[in-house]
Specification:
The complex is a heterodimer of chains A (252) and B (338).
Chain A (H helix, E strand, L loop, with lengths): L4 E12 L2 E12 L3 E5 L6 H9 L6 E6 L2 E2 L5 H6 L2 E4 L11 H5 L6 E4 L2 E4 L1 H14 L16 H14 L4 E5 L7 H16 L3 E5 L3 H7 L2 E6 L2 E7 L5 H10 L7
Parallel strand pairs in A: 3-10, 3-11, 6-9, 9-10
Antiparallel strand pairs in A: 1-2, 1-4, 4-5, 7-8, 11-12
Chain B lengths: L6 H17 L2 H18 L6 H26 L7 H17 L5 H24 L5 H20 L9 H8 L1 E2 L2 E2 H19 L1 H11 L1 H7 L3 H27 L11 H10 L11 H20 L6 H20 L5 H4 L5
Antiparallel strand pairs in B: 1-2
Helix pairs in contact in B: 2-13, 3-8, 3-9, 3-11, 3-12, 3-13, 4-5, 4-6, 4-11, 5-6, 5-11, 7-11, 8-9, 9-10, 9-11, 12-13, 12-14, 13-14
The chains are: A alpha/beta (252), B mainly alpha (338).
The structure holds adenosine-5'-triphosphate (ATP) and magnesium ion.
Membrane topology (chain B): Multi-pass membrane protein
Main location (chain B): membrane
Pfam family, one (chain B): BPD_transp_2
Chain lengths: 252, 338
Amino acid sequence: MSLEHAVEMRGISKRFGNVQALNGVDLELRRGELLGLVGDNAAGKSTLMKTLYGSVIPDAGEIFVEGQKAALRNPRDAQALGLAMIYQDLAVFNNLDVAANVFTGREYTRRVLGITFLDKKRMYNESEALLSRLRINISSPKLLVERMSGGQRQMVAVARAIGFDATILIMDEPTAALGVKEANTLLDLMAELRDQGISIILITHRITDVLSIGDRVMVLKGGERQGILNVEDSTLEDVEYLIVRGRSDGSG
Amino acid sequence: MTANQTPAARVESARARVRELMAHRESGVFLALVVFFVVMYTVSPIFRRPFNLTTILRQISVTSIVAMGQTLVIVSGAFDLSQGSIAGLAAMVTAKLWKNAGLDPPIAIIGGLGVGVLCGFLNGVLAARFRLHPIVMTLATGAVFLGVNFYITRGESIIGLPDGLTWLGRGLIGPVPALIVLMFVVAFLMHILLTRTLFGLRVRMIGGNLKASQDVGMNVERIRVGIFTLSGFLSALGGIVLLGRVGNALPQIGQGLLFPVVTAAIVGGTLLTGGVGSMAGTLIGAAIMGIARNSLVVLQLNIYLQDIVQGMLVVVALLIDQFRRGELNWRIILGRDR
Ligand SMILES: Nc1ncnc2c1ncn2[C@@H]1O[C@H](COP(=O)(O)OP(=O)(O)OP(=O)(O)O)[C@@H](O)[C@H]1O
Ligand SMILES: [Mg+2]
């Protein structure tokens, strides 16, 4: 396995009933790049990323993370390998506060008399620091997520994923619910994280976003890979052509 | 708060604090409790007698203890309808261990609590591993526990219990009835459990968003088993306290416990859809019902009004809940929401 790749997926296939969601898809994510993943609705983008994150088990195919073959049976396995994902259908806990959401699954605790207590103070402090580092417009980590706007919830999910100290970040349409200003903040943040060496896969329908901050863009259509383009020598029309028409010949 | 604030700023920050307070779900019910208490205190000289006030606390103690377990279960997104039967079975096993097996009262009590833990564990396994729907499942296991109770006792009471068995229900710690102390201790510990521990957070998580909890990869099964086991334990504890209050071991102990227990939780603001609820709220809910019941007595109204009042309280609590969640508003009620 080439070591320039943070992730390599080979021949991933997945069928749901009589829908072939993915059909022999390959993907290479270079270390430290921001790869856009685009395609029409139902192209298989979310499903492909879920197989990488261990929340969907593929019918066929292999996944390599940092050159090692990975057995991903659930998201915990993926997290252990340094992956973090923001789901399209935000998996936030509306009944909990911001800090609890940011630290979901890796809470700071203290054991006293065999009982695991939450170290709330530390989680509040660190999530407050995280929110301000990410320039997220949420006034307090004690706020209930229930009372937040869609955009703020999105940012909570972003903070959770980034807070994991992941080296590989998967974002499924993170800007979909955001206003122009919030979306730009998030895009800047992603570019910044990429410059810090984090490898990122960004699913989005806003192709111009990928062209402005991305390195490469991969197109899916009908569960099949249509091609990977270098952002530098591609235009919006090139990408859109692939999305709509697919590759006209066998090249990809 | 600094001294050099303008009056307007001070008013604003006071307002902000009031808003923050009101944002707590318990604030509304607590206010209701205070108003209710003050009104009764003012209008009824019998009500404000210290003896009457401790009577109320003694009366709500068993309900509260068991309701703490129910609150935990409801917050996790389930129900435990077998609590009354567990309470009865644990009480009778305790009495029988003393009477027939000749065990010392403390050992017999531990045995009774063990039975509650076992029943709760069984509920937990059926709910978590076998994925049975908790409402129907606990209704069924409740019937089984009740049947076991009547089978082993043949429906016969055990009259005359030793002090060791009745102490929890009748004893005093200093000047304070033991069961009142027990109620506050249980409430405090359960509050800590729900709000300060990882387990409590997990309970709120699976009740708030089960799918996301599974996505995170937490052990939902184990948490569920823990929840039902704790509910079984607290039911048994309630049953054993009841044993002391009654003074004799009657097989039908614990019957009729379920409704006030669930009522306390609901009136206390526990969301039936899971994820939200507090032990303080449940305690307040139990207190409101206790005062309501006591009012009927001290105002010399017909005690049979009790069921009506209790039922109405639940309906009102449910309505308030619907409003708060935005599921209901005046337009819908007036039929203009088409
Ligand atoms: N759990 C599932 N069960 C059944 N079918 C599924 C499931 N998940 C995805 N599919 C199907 O697989 C196909 C690909 O879905 P996927 O969510 O990956 O698309 P997508 O590219 O992310 O689309 P969108 O842009 O709308 O998010 C669709 O036809 C979808 O209906
Ligand atoms: Mg999708």
